[in-house]
Amino acid sequence: MKKKNNFQDNSKFSFYLLLFLTLGLVIAGWVNVYLQYVSLRDATKTATKASALEIVRSTARAAKSYWSDQLTILGLTEDTITNDQIRAIESQFFTEYIDPIQLLVAEGDAWVIGYNNEMVFDQSVDFPYFGMTIDEFLPLQAEAGGATQYEQMLQDVLLRHESTGEYIWLEEKGVEIGAWAPAVLDDRHNIKWMIGLTTPLSAVMEKSGANDFVRQSTTQMTFVTVVVFTVFYSFVLGQRRVRALQKQLAELRIEIDQSKRQHDVDEIVESEYFQSLKVKAAEMRSRASGS
Fold it and tell me: Does residue 39 fall inside a structural domain?
């Protein structure tokens, strides 16, 4: 009985040990996959923001030169130029300098916020807010179920601060990362543009191959998970078979013990000594009844 209990205790210990090791291995593997994804995502964000910032800085410097050249060509000064002429220069600058800009992927958007905080021009089909200032159309886009996490960018644009960041314009695009920088054209008349470049993070990760690496790691970990749980399931089935055999063996042992006991009784009953005792007992009963 003691040996049986020891065997059962060892079996339970082996089962729980294997269960712990199995779950530990699988959880550790998936945590590693997730950490790899986070590392690649953060590295992609950092690199993309740095690249975008250099691009918008260079474009902002070009805007200053472009502004001076246009004033010279048109024979205008900061004091004589009208609002309509400013808008015309902004639109032309967007077409010649901003629209061609892309960062790695075609899904990226380069944009200009004009001196009056309106979006100068954007050919994207998801921008229906022409003629509205940025602090007007972003809340509207948020109410429509799109824009979120834009507070930092909005603050930077309104204050004409250079920065990098991320926000969501459309849910289907996901997080967009990028940079924005001011182009101070005429500080005295507060004519300042804001040059921005943003790109969906998912598109950059796809283009750079980061998503391929994550998918490969996920596929490998899925295979490992299936193999590990298959081995564990085989062990559980093996343990069930062992317990079933132990039960059958115990029942067989009981049957054998009962059969042996009956055989021993039969041998005693059928022995000559037992038969002689039986005869003597009968004679004694007969005498007792006769007397």
Answer: no
Q: What is the pTM of this model?
A: 0.73
Tell me the average pLDDT of the chain. Answer: 85
Q: Which domain holds residue 89?
A: 48-209
CB contact set of 191 (below 8 Å; sequence gap of 6+):
67, 78, 86, 115, 185
Look at residue 110 and tell me if it is in a domain.
yes
Structure tokens belonging to residue 205:
């990760």
The residues, any chain, with a CB within 8 Å of residue 178's CB and separated by 6 or more, are: 48, 49, 52, 103, 108, 164, 165, 166, 196, 197, 198, 199
Coil, helix or strand at residue 113? strand
Phi, psi at 161, each rounded to 5°: -100, 135
Which CATH number do you get for residue 107?
Answer: 3.30.450.20
Asked if residue 161 belongs to a domain, the reply is yes
Residue with the two structure tokens 């005869």:
279
256 near 249, Cβ under 8 Å? no
Q: How crowded is the C-beta side of 212, counted as CA atoms within 13 Å?
A: 5
Q: Summarize pLDDT for 106-140 with one digit per residue, the tens.
A: 888 889 999 999 988 655 556 788 788 999 999 99
**Contact present, 199 and 45 (Cβ < 8 Å):** no
Quote the number of domains for the chain.
1
Beta strand 175-186 with 163-168 is: antiparallel
DSSP symbol at 185: E
